[in-house]
Design goal:
Helices cover 39% and strands 15% of the residues. It has 2 domains: 14-243, 3-Layer(aba) Sandwich (Aspartate Aminotransferase, domain 2), CATH 3.40.640; 245-364, Aspartate Aminotransferase, domain 1, CATH 3.90.1150. The longest helix has 19 residues, at 245-263. The protein contains 12 helices and 16 strands. The protein is α/β, with parallel strands linked by helices and 365 residues long. The chain is globular. The protein has a 7-stranded mixed β-sheet, with helices on both faces.
Length: 365
């Protein structure tokens, strides 16, 4: 049988089956049930955030966060170009405009120094992305944001378990958004979470994601709402996965150490780097090679060996409906895309599997 080493496959087992069975046996399989509240409380405690509200997806989390902070028509939101498009789309959903920032060539995250240069009178928010689990320089970003009274929404969808100065990603800004898609650090199948310090704000988000229904008045809806509720079944899966988070993050860190120990000495290979006080979640382990042809050769070779890989995100400014928002050259974002590759990081893989990946890469370099 052909060997298969997984990029980002979910790791589910007996504990998840136990919780899912409890949810099914209870009869609460939709958006009503006790596991949702339990998951919210457990997640808030895990990331050391005062409050958390479960939602339908990471994209939904970003959308409702922007809406809650009053970002709307005509406003501008500074966001890195090098990110998954789901970071950008919610900005358009609320009628605002994305302003693309370049990224630091070493960390691949938004450079705080660039934010001030992109600001106009219309700038209302910054949306930093902890790309591939690697934390942004949040202390510097927050200093800029507070100086100019900008809202900060953290895209922590890939960074559960990551820290900056012992403070978890997603807890620095006004609101932090997480994803539990099937390929993330933990999964609920779909799903997401919004966290924050303001109890009133998080309570209102919980109201909004239930179609802004005033239950005390029956089916009464006093404002625009969203159908972004998490289901009881998803939350049950999330509780089980959250209990295994430390196991997952330890394993991902071990994989990263193996990659770096074996490959950093090879000519032209460079890994995504961290800020001095940061600790990545290593959602994916990503590197750059000397040129575009090397990426294609390496990806083809690894595919033949049963190793799953993925190109680094194409800068969002390249997509037809987003090109009009591109103001500058964004050289680092494009260079990383041209030469970047994401390596297997799924925790269903073994230590032996990662050593095997390193052996295959050494054949190319």
């Amino acid at each position: 049988m052909k060997r298969e080493i997984y990029l980002d496959a979910p790791n589910v087992g007996a504990l998840e089956k136990k919780y899912l069975s409890r949810a099914v046996d209870s009869g609460y399989v939709s958006t009503i049930g006790p596991f949702v509240d339990e998951f919210e409380m457990a997640f808030a405690k895990c990331v050391q955030a005062p409050h958390a509200t479960a939602v339908q997806s990471g994209t939904g989390a970003l959308h409702v966060a922007l809406h809650e902070l009053g970002i709307g028509k005509g406003d501008e939101v500074i966001v890195p170009a090098l990110t998954f498009v789901a970071t950008i789309n919610p900005i358009l959903y609320v009628g605002a405009k994305p302003v693309f920032a370049d990224v630091d060539p070493e960390t691949w995250t938004i450079n705080p120094k660039d934010i001030e240069g992109l600001m106009t009178k219309k700038t209302k928010a910054v949306l930093p992305v902890h790309l591939y689990g690697n934390p942004c320089n949040m202390p510097a970003i927050m200093r800029v944001a507070r100086r100019y009274d900008l809202a900060v929404i953290e895209d922590a969808t890939e960074s559960l378990g990551a820290f900056i100065a012992e403070r978890q990603t997603g807890t620095w800004g006004d609101l932090g958004c997480f994803s539990f898609n099937g390929n993330k650090v933990i999964t609920t199948g779909g799903g997401g979470m919004v966290v924050g310090n303001d109890a009133t704000r998080l309570k209102h988000i919980k109201f909004l994601v239930n179609q802004a229904r005033d239950i005390s008045r029956g089916y009464y809806h006093g404002e625009l709402g969203f159908n972004y509720r998490m289901t009881n079944v998803e939350a049950a899966l999330g509780i089980a996965q959250l209990r295994r988070l430390s196991q997952f993050t330890r394993k991902k860190k071990m994989f990263s150490d193996i990659y770096r120990k074996n490959l950093e000495a090879l000519g032209g290979i460079q890994f995504q780097k961290q800020y001095p006080t940061a600790q990545s979640s290593y959602w994916l382990n990503c590197l750059t090679v000397p040129n575009r042809s090397d990426v294609e050769t390496l990806q083809s070779t690894l595919k033949s060996a049963g190793v799953q890989t993925r190109r680094v995100f194409m800068p969002a400014s390249e997509f037809p409906y987003l090109k009009a928002y591109k103001r500058g050259a964004l050289p680092h974002s494009y260079d990383i895309y041209e030469r970047g590759l994401c390596l297997p990081a799924s925790t269903v893989n073994s230590e032996k599997d990662i050593h095997y990946v390193c052996q295959q890469i050494k054949k190319v370099f």
